[in-house]
């Protein structure tokens, strides 16, 4: 089974609201899908591309669990708070942890 990762590099526009209305509530939504944070920090050493001000990497046992979490009722209840408090250029992807190159 190949692990899957959520990788987000948002430009948070209101850190206080992002934290209280979204980030503080995410942990509980991960539990049923066995997701765990590997990285969750504003300490970003930006090198190239669009500059965000926060980085998140969440590990899941597989892509089905990652997609299950993303589409879950619990996550969908709070995701609008993330979107309202981040720039629309935010990068948010789900990738499998296999190598194809």
Notable traits:
101 residues, alpha+beta, Alpha-Beta Plaits, 4-stranded antiparallel sheet, globular
CATH architecture title: 2-Layer Sandwich
> What's the CATH C level?
Alpha Beta
Largest β sheet strand count, sense and barrel closure: 4 strands, antiparallel
Average pLDDT, rounded to a whole number, is 92
Q: What fraction, in percent, of the residue positions are helical?
A: 25-40%
The number of domains is 1
Distance between the termini: 19 Å
What gross morphology would you assign? globular
Count all strands and give the number: 4
String of helices and strands: EHEEHHE
Task: Specify Rg, calculated over alpha carbons.
Answer: 13 Å
Strand order of the largest sheet: 2-3-1-4
What would you say this structure looks like, in words?
The structure is a single chain. By secondary structure, the chain is an alpha+beta fold. 37% of the residues lie in helices and 24% in strands. Strands 2-3-1-4 form a four-stranded antiparallel sheet. Helix 1 runs antiparallel to helix 3. The relative contact order is 0.34.
């Amino acid at each position: 089974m190949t692990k899957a990762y959520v990788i987000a590099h948002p430009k948070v526009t209101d850190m206080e609201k992002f934290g209280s209305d979204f980030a503080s509530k995410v942990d509980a939504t991960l539990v049923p899908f066995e997701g765990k944070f590997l990285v969750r920090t504003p300490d970003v050493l930006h090198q190239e591309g669009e500059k965000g001000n926060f980085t998140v990497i969440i590990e899941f046992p597989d892509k089905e669990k990652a997609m299950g979490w993303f589409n879950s009722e619990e996550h969908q209840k709070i995701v609008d708070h993330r979107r309202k408090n981040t720039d629309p250029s935010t990068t948010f992807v789900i990738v499998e942890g296999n190598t194809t190159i």
